Records
---
Amino acid sequence: MSNNGKGLRIVLTGAPGCGKGTQARLLKQRIGVPHLSTGEMLRAEAQTGSQLGSEIKALIDKGNLVPDEMIITMLGKRIDEPDCTNGFILDGFPRTLPQAEALDKMLKEKGIKLDAVIEIQVPDEIIMERILGRYACMKCGQGYHDKYQQPKVYGVCDNCGGTEFYRRIDDNRATVQNRLVNYRALTYPTIPYFEKEGLLRCVDGTGSIEAVAKKIDDLLGVD
Ligand code: AMP
């Protein structure tokens, strides 16, 4: 595997709230390949207010997955874009076995392969606390947490100076419980699938953001 990050094709996986989005954003800065979050793509579509957007929003708000076919087409188009030629970090995809198989097929057709699938492991009790306390800057998306990561100046984003923040509608207890049920039933089966392919690497996601990032760098051989 490359040790300067060039050309890396990585999947970050794990339960909701395990930190894949946070780690993907940081890893992107270190290895310079795009961060593809299917959740963010879907939230952007939901915000357009289109018919499709309202259907997506209803599924996300309840903690249910959107249909495989739709997400596979969406992701397929995205990785065909030129900025993905030198690699990408997938966050939130694949989330089911059919999605994992479709990804394999897409990459095979392009003659490329994944370098690693990193599972960030965090126990359910910690996940609930993390998700229920998290919020983000409206302007730049920088993440914060009521207990673990408040902005240095109250109400002002450290990153961009923004003063408006939001919480995801699906970050409530009932929806998170459903997201965890769906994770176990639908997403977890992709873990042995990737293990069989020899791609799976596991990281303990309970430490600080920096400590988890360091473990990911070590696994990938990124300096
Ligand atoms: P995330 O931002 O990754 O937590 O995703 C938020 C929500 O978007 C999920 O709870 C699902 O409703 C939907 N979603 C994101 N990625 C996928 C996917 N690969 N397959 C199906 N639904 C997805």
---
Amino acid sequence: MLRGRRVVLGVSGGIAAYKAIEVCRRLVDAGAFVSPVLTPDSLHFVTTQTFSALASEPARTSLWDSPEPSPHTALGQRADLVVVAPATARVLAAYAMGMSDDLLVATLLATRAPVIVCPAMHTEMWEQPAVQANVALLRERGVTVVDPVAGMLAGGDVGVGRLAEPADIVAACDRVLGGGDLAGLRVLVTAGGTREPIDPVRYIGNRSSGKQGHALADEAAARGAEVTLVTSAGRPAAPGVEVVSVETAAQMEAAVAARSDDADVIVMAAAVADFRPKAVADDKLKKGDGVPEVVLEPTPDILAGLGARKRPGQTLVGFAAETSDVVANAAEKVRRKNLDLIVANDVSAPGVGFEHDTNAVVLLREDGSREDVPLADKRAVARAVLDAVLDLRSQATR
Ligand code: C5P
């Protein structure tokens, strides 16, 4: 969706301006016509020459140094999208207040195109109520905010405030312009292992890290889907993913039930507990009271429930974490749970499944066909799963 689109790339004066060079290059690589607008302060960190060399036209820095009589209105009117990366506290404030004090803010005020701001600053500044109020106001007005992430900041500090990754910023641009092969699809993903309480401090859990489910949600969002992620993993998700945090199988079931009717694609990557304590003690069980007898009961099978009420046009994907007879067990689950696809893995193999950054899976379809995805990082596995989903959906409409 970026191909042939006119994108104004605004760069303001923070150390993260160096990452805007990568954003510029990626936008150009995706086929966009990129017009860089650099604030005077950004020139302390990056040069006009760098952007002029990489972008589609020379970088502009001022209202007064351009051959056009009115550069801000020319840029604003021509733009299909304006993205500001990094957006400093000053630019956010000036834009929120309508104070046109440089070419970038003037362009933001002169455009009717969608706007994305990518704030980056020290944690103390980012958390300042004044900054948060400006960001909230911009959001309310329809501006897309690609939130900063946690990590190393200038001067060696660590905290929230780091500019989002260039790839995520470009994915947000693509999404705002309606791009990606999953655009228009609502995708519901579950991730993580559920925790079933025994008492207020103890629970029955499993080794799932949620990495595969989160990679699926991030990949679906990067490809333009509207994504909801129901997760127990407590991990960050890519900008644009709606995150619903849960802990138990019952909470996950309720969160999924509330959203499943609207979903075009549901991917149950979560490792849902099969059993939970029948009764949860109100107080912490005391060692002195002897060894407790924990009686278990089955949890609801969320996926089987979804399969039983699957609506036409809905694609249902399950996961099967196995330690033996991987394919046979997975094939039985596809049928029993009325799935379109199951992602099966042998979690006892090295580098595969729980906690690892990599995975190796077999994709089994309801028609019995099979595709092997060899060991790869979980984002690549997510790509293969979503490719298979798209293929299934295009077959269904043929
Ligand atoms: O039958 P099994 O638990 O191995 O099936 C795994 C698949 O079923 C996964 O997709 C998992 O998310 C889902 N599941 C579920 N509810 C349960 C147990 C598993 O939705 N209670």
---
Amino acid sequence: MITYLVTGGAGFIGSNYIHYMFREHKDIRIVNLDALTYAGNLDNLSDIGQGDSYRFVKGDICDRELVESIFRDEDIRYVIHFAAESHVDRSIADPDTFVRTNVLGTMNLLHCAYDAWVQPDGTFSEGCRFIHVSTDEVYGSLTGEGTYFYEDTPYDPHSPYSASKAGSDLLVKSFIDTYGFPANITNCSNNYGPYQFPEKLIPLMIQNALSGKALPVYGDGLNVRDWLYVEDHARGIDMVCQRGRLGEKYNIGGHNERQNIKIVETIIDLLREMLPEEDPRRAGVTRDLITYVEDRKGHDRRYAIAPDKIKSELGWEPLTNFEDGIRKTIRWYLDNEKWLEGVISGEYLRFYEQNYSGREKL
Ligand code: NAD
Ligand code: TYD
């Protein structure tokens, strides 16, 4: 039985990863360390019971004693590090929390994994590995058509979120370069799929359209993101963990660039198609809901990943195309309205008010 320490496993990608891993592997145990911030939700894992193969620990990745005790009590072979503050708009309003969790939290995990795995001769226990899950936003914003982010693209983060992820990436790199620490860094494009908190573009637009609320498109709506179905990301992380070259960095993206406005229009069209005729919400889902609002500060224009390295070295390719993935995602939100109601709590409404009420309509 191989034991994984997954951090942030109650969040969007972490919970999809845990589901994926239990589907794909028989002999594994997962210890999920999550602080259950506004973005963490145990309902995402309600079908996975505590037992021999799964243990949930509520706690902060910055807590040295707690993380040390997990390494003492468990025979951790792999760390899959997802825990982070992850929303750009929140980082603009409150950058400090991002530095604390993303930079100091990663440092603490590195420190504890180093102590647990290092041998008297300075090498590390056979087979151990730390996967740091990061983002393509560390590379900044692309301008020219046909340009892409590669693993050696220089870092040029603009938001406090991407700067804090860049800082954490560089700390992991420093452990690899200085101590020969067994780690990989993965930099992924925008994920979408089930269990995504409705502060991010796709679930926010689904949720607002279903409630007949305005669909707030930042700026001219022509910013481009490169969308990847979350299960494809989970598979990519698993492949890097099993077969990636130690110390290497891998970009994960699906060559699936879309302008934001096209995403919003697709969601409206599909909701109209998928909602039953007799559903009273259907008539209200129209393009009239689209509302252009004041742009995000420092808004990156375009992200696009070249996933050539992970494809040639590990044979990874996305298996879900956008047309299927977005349908599956909308279907999931329509079938899981209780989940959606559960996460739109007081805290969500406070954030929504703070982020959107002050924005001028364009
Ligand atoms: P998320 O916000 O949905 O989940 C983050 C999880 O981390 C939550 O469960 C939260 O409770 C937990 N957490 C936050 N602070 C913590 C702390 N101090 N201690 C312990 N747990 C804490 O995020 P996500 O979208 O699932 O992203 C996961 C990782 O993937 C992040 O590192 C993010 O930077 C990266 N990433 C995300 C995307 C994307 O499109 N969502 C793309 C590329 C990379
Ligand atoms: P988001 O889902 O926040 O991901 P990220 O900023 O990390 O890429 O946003 C995706 C794109 O959608 C980004 O260009 C900002 C834009 N956006 C809107 O136009 N309106 C919104 O309400 C949100 C949340 C995002």
---
Amino acid sequence: MIIVKTISELKETLKQYNDKSIGFVPTMGALHDGHISLIRRARHENDIVVVSIFVNPTQFLAGEDLDKYPRKDEVDKKICELAKVDVLFMPNINDMYGDDEVKILAPSVKGYILEGFIRPGHFDGVLRVVCKLFNLVKPTNAYFGKKDAQQLVLIQQMVKDLFMDINIVPCELIRDSDGLALSSRNVYLSHEERQKALAISKSLKSAAKKIGMGELDVSVLQSLMSDVMCELDVEYIAFMDREFNKIEKIEIKNTIILVAARLGVTRLIDNIWI
Ligand code: AMP
């Protein structure tokens, strides 16, 4: 595995893979089994696998956890090595950003609802960095988790709107054995908060079960989910189609149910694709 830190090193390294397919997995590090599942899939489907680790400051709002976001560079390098990553790109902030830059903006509706409503400007920062990374890595396929459903949909839209010739591969959401969706931020949870947080995945499961029994009315499902999460500080429960339009009735194979909740200082998001 080659570890590159600068953009010129990255360009030099990628030159040798001119005619090969490149699978790209962008991350913010503190890698867990969710990230590893993306890397494995990229390994399986491409000649070359490039992973980036970059805690992107432009997607954090003022007052969010940028400074204390978990950083585990040495362990992450080992994980990537074991997963047979070819190139690990770990740029620093000054390499990635200059002053007074040209910027890409998230769409004004889909980028500013749900996560984008609670974190206004977050998706501007996400798309800005992913656009830069795509231009640097020039991947054939890029792998994103369904865990961050809105991010995935917006990246699919960016690729389409900007005529980028990159195949976006949505990857399954990976959970811990107790049902909690894996997230680098789970380390912030106390034991008690973690136990309480299980209500999030339980609520999604119970909605899916009810849908399996024929219930398609969103308001019924929403109140069922609220009941399961009655002890949590729920920010939203949302029912969207796969292009992120709000729906009133479940459309089988075209629905995403999303939840965001706060456990103490930690925000957790989770979802299920129906
Ligand atoms: P992050 O490091 O949080 O920016 O995530 C990097 C990539 O890993 C994104 O495409 C995420 O959607 C994906 N990811 C994070 N957690 C999970 C998970 N539990 N299951 C699947 N993919 C995940």
